[in-house]
Amino acid sequence: MNRAVIYLPRFSEAAGRIARVLGADLLEYSETAFSSAISCYREIAAVMSMGIAVRGIAPYLKDKWTDPALVVVTPDLRLAIPVTGGHHGANALARELAVLGAFPVITTATERGGVPSVEGLAAAGGYSLVNRDTSKTVNAGFLDGTTRLYSVQGPAVVIGNKETAFLITDGEYSIGIGCRKDTSAQEIEEAVRTVLATSGIRPDQVFIYATTAKKAHESGLLDAVRALGRPLLYLDDLTINAIPTRSGSRASRIGLSGVAEPCALATAKRRDLVVGKTVIGGVTIAIAR
What we know:
Blueprint: E1 3-7, H1 12-22, E2 25-28, H2 33-38, E3 43-47, H3 50-57, E4 69-73, E5 79-84, H4 90-96, E6 103-104, H5 109-113, H6 118-125, E7 127-129, H7 135-144, E8 167-169, E9 173-179, H8 185-199, E10 206-212, H9 219-228, E11 232-235, H10 237-241, H11 260-266, E12 273-280, E13 283-288
Parallel strand pairs: 1-2, 1-3, 3-4, 5-6, 9-10, 10-11
Antiparallel strand pairs: 4-5, 7-8, 9-13, 12-13
């Protein structure tokens, strides 16, 4: 299990009990303990004061989607306090420690209000949240009683605004696709499968395909992605142009910074480009995760 317990030496006994419950590795505290743990573990329990833990992890925090789940546990095992990643594993980890008598101090608003969160729904159902920027608005709607939940079975087209969260079957990779006008479905599908095979990525590891909304009329693109068995998301110009690109693109002619790379990155979980813009015939492909 991708977990670690970082502890001060004087609290080794308590740390050992926590590690046994969580199935976690034990790491004795040092100046480099947090930097080492973050590169290897997604969930961390820290047996120390809140101040030490916060100062240790603060230099490595980026955003809630990539930060590790950190729970501070008091040395007397009376309190388990999620610090980062509450909706991303920390709240659940804190609750696991209740078997040791530790009270989970949950501070996330949706849990305190007894309502769902979009992150919680995604975790429970094994889904990915495609447009992560919606989480704040949607969770606020859960608190206010205005967010509505719909389940749609495909084939289907779902249209929503910037306040609509889209949850889809989970996977590791997102693929951005650009193509010339009237490119056939066969050419697009073959190009995607070629890049996937060259990259050592299976089609079932992809959770979303994305392109510009300017391609909404391209039936070949829609049919190709349907054959690949995953959803196709059309992105607006503002979303695409907000993503920095590494290479020039002919898409500048239609007012875009690019298509394949920014579309892949905009829908990726970690915004990590693993396959840069690759051109095969009239098709351009990029892969991110």
